[in-house]
Every structure is written in structure tokens, then in C-alpha cells.
Write a structure and sequence with these properties.
Two copies of one chain form a homodimer. By secondary structure, the first copy, chain A, is an alpha/beta fold. Helices cover about 45% and strands about 15% of the residues of chain A. In chain A, the strands form two sheets. Chain A has a six-stranded parallel beta sheet, with helices on both faces. A six-stranded mixed beta sheet of chain A has the order 7-6-8-9-10-12, sandwiched between helices. Chain A is elongated, with a radius of gyration of 26 Å. The first copy, chain A, binds a DNA duplex (16 and 16 nucleotides) through helix 2 and helix 4.
DNA sequence: CTGAAAGCGCTAACAA
DNA sequence: TTGTTAGCGCTTTCAG
């Protein structure tokens, strides 16, 4: 037995396919006699009819699918965000394609091309660079999109990010209150908004609190990874720079710091304190449990999804609003007062 | 300017749409004069033509999409598997929809229904229960699927799992060699193949090695979570049961054990050793770093994807083969010789 | 080897 | 309020 089609339902209800279509679609149901509609609905139910979204898409030029563009799903930051996205998009009738760019521009281009060829209705993008020609071009072509986590310059699209500045301020204040005066910032790549925003916020906080404002106390990591975090910290240590605490650009960089501590027999927090950023799952179980700035992962996903839905809904090109989500400092055992020198 | 269609390409190449279609499709290209084909190809390239998979799907009744069914993407076990799946399916021209069931039968049914309505060509399922009426029914309806991680009874579909028995044997032998004789197994739910297989393997290993074979030394967890792992361990401890080591059904259960150790000031590995299962990301950074049975996550995904592709290819209902992937014991600091009593 | 024609399942004018 | 008609973009017989 074949899967029943709209025509089968129509025949069973004794109406034309068009009428059945109208009756089945909540939007257009008002156009149809309610008795007829009921007849169609019950016919559909008894046949076990489910509409074929492919056929609908072909007609309407809307696929009911969304592309989610990530650097790497394997980064524990993203799964909760993806869940958040799905929590909103699923009930709204959309499904997601997830692609990984591995921070590679070419791969990103290919992946997004593939998404577009699948006729996704919109994009939720977590891979933005400050300068991002590809995204700019897509936006100019009218591709609907929302950015999350990172922003892009000169790209007027809705954006959902954690409150980077507030988070860093919390971290620095916490360390200052513990008595630290020389704090190293392991900054993320300056090509990302999160990298620059957090670094800027760090300098601001240091000045506001009257701590040692030494430019050497900002070390830049080439990527948001353990490896590059470790590398930057090693360089700082080797240069003879003195500091008693580290504010890492994110949790992975903080993990890189942990690796260096182990290599060099530095005890944390006794010799050096560390604060992370993001509140990745399971970092409460590390050795030592990581003090970090917790961001609302799921909520970032939900908010981004909601904004995309809005964007898809009204065609009015009203100025995109952007959202800063509140963060909180979660104090654990990786921070303590500095050792009395 | 509109996106170019096949007809545009055909017109530009001075041929009929049908010919263009044949030329563009590698499968049918042989049917067409190679000069003509070249003309079509170059026309396509210069117009920037990309085929519309929706239209193709409508005609061919194949969507080029696959459904991936997980308990919860947020469980760190799954992202690497999903990457593995994608690594194979992407280049083969497929895209994935990922759904989360949250171990809820109703939700699973709804999610799979949604996948089917999107006309997915096949399913890669990581949520199998030993008795799984829904999957059985789908299989009877001819839905193509591959199971991974967990198996289902009386369901003749290809399956990719880690070698549970070998892994548990490695874990038990390791502990035995350290000198442990009374080992507690925190078993996963017996409704899952992994739960029963690992528990059975545990009893076998204990007997083979001549360790204390006390039935009380297998405690069953209600789910594969930290909470239920902790709960089971607390009960065992409260009952006065004596043991010097724990083989956890998986890493999350092992994490639950860690929580109990902290609650009760039990030091690991000095008082109790622990071995996990799965080799989740980041467990090397726990306190203490977890000794665990490492499974080849990405490879599980890749293998499952490959098997699904095979299944989709030949319609011959040849008996499904199943694959056991090799595992390895990764020894870290959560295991040590038992304290001299 | 290529063209003509039909149709996948649905929706959106337009007419009645 | 309902039916008629046409067509989304592609593939696939069937002729030629």
C-alpha cells in the first residue's frame, strides 16, 4: 500500500484536491466550509495521511529547514546551544541541518553552499569573524541569518551573545578581591568579536580596579583551543613575566593552562589562580574545579532561534535587534588568594 | 536575478532539459554524446547552476537526508559519533537531521515521525532498547536503519557497537592485576543491550579470574546518568557491602561515583579505584583522571554511516552484518592497588 | 544519442 | 465556498 496523498484524501472526502489542501492547512482553513473541512480532516486521519513537505517546498520555495553553522560540534560549548535552537525550531515546524566548519574558510563556504542548495530558509551562524566577507555577501544576497556567540563588524543582522564585558569584569573583580594585582589575560584570537571584546573588557576592568596595567599582561592565543592556550601561557612564563592569576578567554584556553601547570609543576590555585569563560559542561569535575564565567547556553540557542523565526516572518526590513545575555561568575576551586611572596 | 534552473542551462547549451539532466548526472552521463555533455557542463558552470534537490527528491522519492536519533546530543559521547557520521555521509551527498529523544518513548515516536514526514532515506539510531516495538515496526515497514552503540533483540538490522565484553574484561583484569578481589559493577539499565552485555561480561571476567563472585557486587543503575550512578553506589555503600574497586557501566556513572566519593570523603584511588567506559572527552582532566575503556567514537559513527549507505544501495535483503569495534583500556590515576586492610 | 511528454505531491491564482 | 488549471524543477519512460 502506498503512502496516501492529498488526492486520496480529497477523493475519500469527496472534494477536490485543492479544497482538501485548504482544509488541511490551518492558515487557509477559514476559506472552507467548516463541515467540509471536518470531512476532509477525518478522511485524512483515517487514511493516516501526512503531507509531503518536499512537494510543498517545491511549490512554496520554502523548505522548513534551517542551517546551523558551527566551528565544531565536538566543542562542548555547542551541544547545549544546539539543543536550545532545536527546542524552539522543532515546535515551530522547522528542522536543522548542522554543519561544522572546523574554522576553515573554504570548508565553511562549501558547507554553506551545500546548505543553500538544500534550500534552507535561514542560517544560525556561530562562526563569525570580525571581518567576514562570506557572511556579508550572503546577507547582501538576502539570506536570512542570525549570529550567535560571536559578532561580525558591519553586518546588520540580529546577534545573540553573552555579555562578554560584564563576564570579564566579574572575573577580574573576583581576582582583585582575592588580592591579585598582576593578572594575565590569555586572550582569544583578535579576529573574533569575543577575542577583542573580552580583551578590551579586561583592560578596562584592570584600570577600573587600579590593578597593574601592564600591556604585557595580555597574551594573545592563536585559536580558542587548549593547545594555543597552553602555547601562549608557556611563552608568557618563559618571558619571565610575573603574575599570580590568569583570566582565560574561554574554558578551553583555561584547560590549556591546566596542561602547562601539570608540565611545570605549578600548583593551581596556590601558585596561580585561573578563571575560565563559558561554563562548559563537566568543568566542575576538573582538577581543580574551574572557576568560570557561566553563560546561558541553551538560552543563547533559544534566543537565536526565536530571532531567526522573527526574521523569517516579517519581511519588513526593520533594524535587527541584538541581544546580550546575562552571565554569572561561578566560583570554584581554581581561584584563591595569591601566595604571600 | 533568479537562481538558474535546469532549463536555463539546457537553453544556454542549446539542448533539451532532459539532455541537460542526463549530462549533469554522472550516472547517466554515458548516455549522452561527450561533446554535448561538455557543453552542458560548461554552461552549468558559467551560469552557476546548482541542482535543486527538492525537485529531484519529489521525482525520485529520495531526499538525500538521513535521520540521526540520539538520546541527547548534550551527552559528550555523541558529538564525536555525529562527526563521524557526517564525515561519511556528507561526501556521499547526504545531510543529517539530528533528533533527541531524551529517553522518552513518546518523544522518540514523535521525533521519528517528524523525520519520516521529511522523507529521510534512512535512520541511524543510538537509542535502541532491548525490546523496542517502535523500531521493530519501522523495520517491518521497510524503513532502512542502522543501530549504533546499543542493539535490540530480534531486530535484524546492521549494528555497530564497541566490543563491550572485551572492554569489561580489560577493566576487570586491570583491577585484578592491581590486586583487587572484590569489585563492584555499577551496571547500566538492563533494558539496554549495553547494560546487560557489560554486566554479563563482568560476571564472566570475575569468574575467569577467580575473583569474589558475589551477586551483590552487581548494582543496577536506573539510567546511564551521574545521578543514578551515584544513587546506586550510595545504596551499595549503605548496605555495608565491601569492595575496593568499581567498574562503572559508563563514564557518566563513574562521574556519579566521583560525586559520592566527594560527599563521603572517600579518596580515589586510595580507598576505592574506579574504571569507566567510553572514553568521553575531557575525562583525562578530571580529579582524578579517569581510567576508562576507550571506544573509537568517530569510527563508530563512520562505520554506522557506511553500513547505512550500503543498506540504501542494494535492495537485496542480504542478512545484515554487525560490527564490533575494538576498544582499549586507558589507564589513568583513578585506579591503584587496594589499601592493605 | 536526443527530444517530447508526463508527472512526482502540493499550492495558488483564477473562475465559477 | 469550491473546482479548474497550471506549474514549482527535476527525472524518466518512450519515441524518434
Amino acid at each position: 500500500m502506498q503512502k496516501p496523498t492529498l488526492r486520496d484524501v480529497a477523493k475519500a472526502a469527496g472534494v477536490h484536491a485543492a479544497t482538501a489542501s485548504r482544509a488541511l492547512n490551518p492558515e487557509t482553513r477559514v476559506l472552507v466550509n467548516s463541515e467540509t473541512a471536518l470531512r476532509v480532516l477525518s478522511a485524512a486521519k483515517s487514511l493516516g495521511y501526512t503531507p509531503n513537505p518536499i512537494a510543498r517546498s517545491l511549490k512554496t520555495a520554502k523548505s522548513g529547514t534551517i542551517g546551523v553553522v558551527l566551528p565544531d560540534l565536538t566543542n562542548p560549548l555547542f551541544p547545549p546551544i544546539v539543543r536550545g535552537i532545536d527546542d524552539i525550531l522543532g515546535p515551530a515546524g522547522y528542522s536543522c541541518f548542522i554543519v561544522n566548519t572546523d574554522n576553515d574558510a573554504e570548508r565553511e563556504q562549501a558547507q554553506i553552499a551545500s546548505l543553500r542548495s538544500r534550500q534552507v530558509d535561514g542560517l544560525i551562524v556561530g562562526t563569525a569573524w570580525l571581518r567576514h566577507p562570506l557572511l556579508t555577501e550572503l546577507h547582501e544576497q538576502g539570506v536570512k541569518m542570525v549570529l550567535f556567540n560571536r559578532r561580525a563588524e558591519r553586518l546588520d543582522v540580529p546577534t545573540v551573545t553573552p555579555d562578554d564585558a560584564a563576564g570579564i569584569a566579574l572575573a577580574v573583580r573576583h581576582l582583585a578581591e582575592l588580592g591579585h594585582r598582576r593578572i594575565l589575560h590569555l586572550a582569544g584570537p583578535p579576529a573574533t568579536s569575543t577575542g577583542t571584546a573580552r580583551a578590551a573588557a579586561f583592560r578596562d576592568a584592570v584600570r577600573d580596579l587600579g590593578l597593574d596595567d601592564d600591556p604585557a599582561l595580555v597574551a594573545v592565543c592563536a585559536s580558542w583551543t587548549e593547545e594555543d592556550g597552553a602555547r601562549a601561557l608557556r611563552t608568557a612564563l618563559d618571558s619571565g613575566l610575573r603574575f599570580t592569576a590568569v583570566v582565560a578567554g574561554n574554558d578551553l584556553i583555561a584547560l590549556g593552562a591546566y596542561d602547562v601547570f601539570r608540565e611545570r609543576d605549578i600548583s593551581c590555585p596556590e601558585q596561580i589562580s585561573v578563571v575560565g569563560f563559558n561554563g562548559m559542561p563537566f568543568i566542575d569535575k576538573l582538577r581543580p574545579p574551574l572557576t568560570t564565567v557561566t553563560i546561558p547556553h541553551q538560552q543563547i540557542g533559544r534566543e537565536a532561534a526565536r530571532m531567526l523565526l522573527e526574521t523569517l516572518q516579517d519581511d519588513t526590513d526593520r533594524p535587527p535587534r541584538s541581544v546580550l545575555l546575562p552571565v554569572a561568575l561561578t566560583v570554584r576551586a581554581s581561584t584563591a588568594p595569591p601566595a604571600k611572596a
